[in-house]
Design goal:
Nucleotide-diphossugar_trans, alpha/beta, 246 residues, single chain, Trfase_1_rSAM/seldom-assoc, Glycosyltransferase, 7 helices
Length: 246
Amino acid sequence: MAGLACACMPLPLESTDAVVVFLKVPTLHKTKTRLIPRFGAEGAYAIAQALAEDTLRRLGSSPLLDDARRVACFAPADGADRLERLAARAAVAGRFELSPMAPRDLASSDLGAALRAEYERVRATTPGAVVIVGMDAPDLPLDVVAGAATAARRGAAVVHDASDGGYVLLALPPGAPGDVFDGVEWSTDRTAASQRAALEARGVPLAARAGPPWPDVDEPGDVDALFARLNPTACPSLAAARANLT
């Protein structure tokens, strides 16, 4: 199925829409472990905390999202108190519905099941667009989030690619079934392509690609690139981490 043309103007999200951020609550020695050889365990932990805080801050404070349902789906399941503290430091306490992923821990083998379970839970009471993002693209333009929601409300799914072949955003229209996550090749350079294939196989229309791939943060080089382009006003927690680590 060819991508459907869509203006994707960044209209504010509506009260029938939801934004769901999937995140790991940072844990020392267990989060962003690929960064430890370069930044040390404490540094990797600080980067993970800053990624989470700035993601929550930007999604939780944007006027474009004020009317939408905002959900933080997190692992591990006993991390609610720590997540609430992160939200408080980001000045967005109480703005997210907290949804634990018990007993999953966001391992790649469980990711499709976790996404499906949370999407079906949110979709049950959300008739509009459901936009799913992670914490590894904290500076993704909010216009991209709003434009994807607009496209989804109009009936087309949006997959916004990451630079490594994954994706940083998925917007699903009303009627998209939960099994669109089944069979996706997670944590490979074909993740975005296989997600599009899963959507097409289930008859979900796809919007035309709205922009170039966006970089996410998995490896030390990704951190360097993020620090180099960082807007400290938009991502103050990451700016503080950059000052402490470079």
